[in-house]
Design a protein that fits this description.
alpha+beta, 3 domains, five-stranded antiparallel beta sheet
């Protein structure tokens, strides 16, 4: 229950917001322009102060035994507030910089960015202002003196109260040049900035990636593109694409792809040649290759979408074409015969075939709200092996590493009649979770049921090796 102080403050806030929301557009229009702008400014300050209270609350979720609430504060925030996990991460990252810190021995330390924290909690900064300052600090070379760094941070925090975020960004860029006029960055500075991340997959299946490459990676890619991205090389439009040696002059002359498209196709060819190569080893007992689940009817019709073990949607024609390469083939699991999926007590670790089926059935971690795909999951015995559980396909499920550990902290799992895995929280939490079954990896379940709806997944790409998986 809330304390009296907190409950009264929340009630006052909601009452005030109800009163403002009750003002009609006509009433607002009847006020002088100066009054409307002053009100808009006050409401904006209140909104920003609400954001600051949110970071303070987020900071309280870090530490203690909060992992038992569902894999850490980020997912707890995302699920409870119905925000994206990316937004939850932003709030926690902000809290780490603008909230007071408690040492292991108990003393309280001021925020990492003290001046920014003061402006943030006063409602003078928007999230975009805060992001500009955080990015400025992150991008500074490591050898900048702490006193210079603190002075620059305080200067930007002061100016943020006067400037729009894009204006503050220009000021921060100029200030960075002033602090590092020679543009000297060490290998450690560059390594700290190196990254690659995907954006969300669009409806047409395309994805945008953002790459910050070290000089070494860029040099290597440039060398590969110099040959692999020449006109006529690795052209998927050719009946027999040239992947080695020199392209035929006629093919090169008829290549209508742009340089950017040729680089894309060269990179695709480079990755395709590596997938499934035994020299790469295995990942959780399976070859490093693409695993995709679909239905038999979609394969037969050549239409629809497969789902990879990373959660990527893959058009069926692309899947069939990719399966023709040396290290890719399809197997349909439709009964108990053929490859063994029911191992009983004869083996504790799930087999490669069982993991393949779980990629098709679960697609990813089954903990409510978790977005970790199958590639990043372990196999969990719903009935614990140590308590007599069996290694049978109908008694196994996917759980990512973080949520798998929750089973030792009071969480329990069980299989429902439809094959879904239900997660039951510890009773001592005293919380009612919005859902105990994860539908994140199966958005089609939210669609209205119609005649001829897609059948349950039953086909998957399968290598033929046994798998050793993570035990319960």
């Amino acid at each position: 229950m809330f304390s009296n102080r907190v409950s009264e403050a929340v009630a006052m806030l909601l009452t005030a917001m109800d009163a403002l929301a009750a003002v009609s557009k006509t009433e607002w229009e009847g006020l002088p322009l100066a009054d409307r702008l002053a009100t808009a400014e006050s409401v904006e300050t209140a909104r920003r102060r609400g954001l600051a209270v949110g970071t303070t609350l987020a900071a309280t979720l870090v530490g203690d035994d909060q992992a038992v609430l569902g894999g850490g504060p980020r997912q707890l925030l995302a699920d409870w507030l119905r925000i994206t996990t990316a937004e939850a991460k932003h709030r926690l990252d902000h809290a780490a910089k603008v909230e007071e810190r408690t040492t292991l021995t108990g003393p309280v330390l001021p925020p990492v960015l003290a001046a920014t924290a003061a402006s943030w909690h006063a409602g003078r900064l928007d999230e975009e202002h805060l992001t500009v300052i955080l990015d400025f600090i992150k991008d500074l070379p490591a050898d900048i003196e702490p006193a210079e760094r603190d002075t620059a941070e305080a200067f930007l925090a002061h100016k943020a109260a006067e400037l729009r975020p894009e204006q503050l960004k220009q000021l921060a860029d100029n200030l960075a040049i002033t602090l590092n006029p020679d543009g000297v960055f060490t290998d450690a500075d560059r390594k700290r900035q190196s990254s690659f991340c995907w954006g969300p997959q669009r409806r047409d299946g395309m994805s945008k990636g953002t790459l910050w490459a070290t000089p070494e990676l860029r040099a290597g890619l440039d060398a590969h593109f110099a040959h692999g991205a020449k006109p006529g090389m690795n052209n998927p439009a050719d009946q027999s694409p040239c992947t080695e040696g020199e392209p035929d002059p006629e093919l090169a002359g008829s290549d209508t792809r742009s340089p950017a498209q040729r680089r894309h196709d060269a990179l695709n060819a480079l990755v395709r040649r590596q997938l499934g190569d035994p020299d790469l080893g295995t990942h959780r007992g399976l070859p490093v290759t693409i695993i995709a689940s679909t239905t038999l009817s979609e394969l037969q019709s050549g239409a629809g979408q497969a789902v990879t073990a990373a959660g990527t949607l893959l058009p069926i024609p692309d899947l069939i074409r990719m399966a023709q390469h040396a290290f890719h083939y399809l197997t349909v699991f439709d009964d108990v015969t053929g490859r063994p999926l029911w191992l009983g007590r004869t083996k504790r670790c799930a087999s490669a075939d069982q993991r393949i089926v779980l990629h098709a059935l679960d697609r990813g971690c089954t903990f409510p709200g978790c977005d970790k795909p199958g590639y990043l999951c372990e196999v969990h015995h719903v009935d614990e092996w140590a308590a007599g559980g069996r290694t049978d396909i109908d008694k196994l499920t996917f759980a990512c590493g973080v949520h798998h550990k929750l089973l030792s902290q009071g969480w329990r799992t069980r299989k429902l009649g439809n094959g879904d895995t239900e997660w039951l929280p510890p009773t001592q939490l005293g919380l009612t979770f919005g859902g105990t079954v994860n539908a994140f990896h199966h958005p089609e379940r939210f669609l209205p049921k119609t005649p001829g709806a897609a059948e349950a997944p039953e086909a998957a790409e399968a290598p033929g090796a046994d798998a050793e998986d993570d035990p319960d």
